[in-house]
Amino acid sequence: MDFTPSEEQSAAQGLAARIFGDLSTHERLAAAGTGTDAELWKELCAAGLPGAVEDVGLLGLVLLLEEQGRTTAQVPFAATCVYGLLAVAEHGTAEQRERLLPGLRDGTAVATGAFPARGGVHISDGALSGAVPWVPWLRDATQVLVADAERVLWIVEAAASGVTVEPVETTAPWAAGRLVLDGVRGERLGNGPGAYAAVLASARTAFAGLQAGVCAGSLARAVHHTVTREQFGRPLSTNQGVLLRAADAHMDTEAIRVTAYEAAWRHDEHRDDAAQALTAAWWASEAGKRVVHAGQHLHGGAGADLDHPVHRHFLWGRQLDAYLGCGSELLEELGLLLAADGQEEGALRMPPADRQEEGSLRMPPADRQEEGALRMPPADRQEEAS
After folding, report:
1. 340/347 Cα distance (integer angstroms)
2. How far, rounded to the nearest angstrom, does the alpha carbon of residue 91 sit from its chain's CA centroid?
3. Spatial contact of 269 and 58, defined as CB atoms under 8 Å apart
4. Could you tell me which residues come within 8 angstroms of residue 382 by beta carbon, excluding any fewer than 6 positions away?
5. pLDDT, tens digit (0-9, with 9 covering 90-100), for 333-376
6. pLDDT tens digit string along 156-180?
7. What is the pTM (predicted TM-score) of this model?
8. Are 299 and 319 in contact (CB under 8 A)?
9. Cross-strand bridge partners of residue 122
10. What separation in angstroms does the CA of 11 have from each of 19, 43, 118, 269?
11. Residues in contact with 69: Cβ distance below 8 Å, sequence separation at least 6, in sequence order
């Protein structure tokens, strides 16, 4: 595995870092409230960053989302790229790609996804009905990727007849909404459950990359605070407890980053990435929660201020924890996946006939019975048996 960014990936990451750093300031975020920063979204699209994802791949997208996470920029970048650009580019027909991708590239179309599927949407007579409690960036979306109860993907226009969007406020300001479908005609995408599983794995990887950036930004703020703030004549960072807490947060952040990189690399190399995506999601959920808590705690009383910049990282970290799924839920799914893979490889079956001599749960063959541990000794040796 080689996670070294290509020239194109590095250039895109550098451009994203500059735009997010210049425009996603604390003052602008405060002014945006719980909504999207429309001007920032226009700048990102004018710079061609959403469209660049088709060239830099999922690993490149993870790098870009790290930069968004560092500043907690309020734009539907992850959702549009994962549930729109990559989903259509990888699973759409030639006609769908030609028709849908241009708008997603230039920002005139915004996509999101009702993921993961919880069985709330059903199809009858070709029409979709049901409700999804909350969907990220739904209030900004022009199209929504919906999975029905059979894990078949459908593209639904947000303005279509029968679609209702009810605003929902979540922990982080993600312009979320409750999606209600009442006899809505959707456009099928991909080959059924296989496409759903692939999009879900990509989404988990991408949002794990976003969490890596959120954690890196939280830790950077904590380091700056503890280095510059003094207590009893010396910086807070010289206290051993502070150093250990920051070190643990750094290691957790690196674990989130490297697992997201591995999952994205495997995706781009067209290798199975389901287990790696789950692993990245677990680290992002469990470790991400620890990091943003540490970042807030290391700020002391300032960290409890709802208007302090570090509190925004805390909110995003907890929102991503909820969106990716709690740790036990992800571990259960990962365990089931590994167990299923093991059964397919013959881990829980009797060995074939030509390998039975190596089996651990067999009777020894006739020519080796003298070596058997649970046999009666031969007649000429019974007198010696103890």
Report:
1. 10
2. 19
3. no
4. 376
5. 999 999 988 776 654 444 454 544 444 434 444 444 444 444 44
6. 999 999 999 999 999 999 999 999 9
7. 0.86
8. no
9. 129
10. 12, 16, 38, 21
11. 209, 210, 211, 212, 213, 214, 215, 216, 217, 316
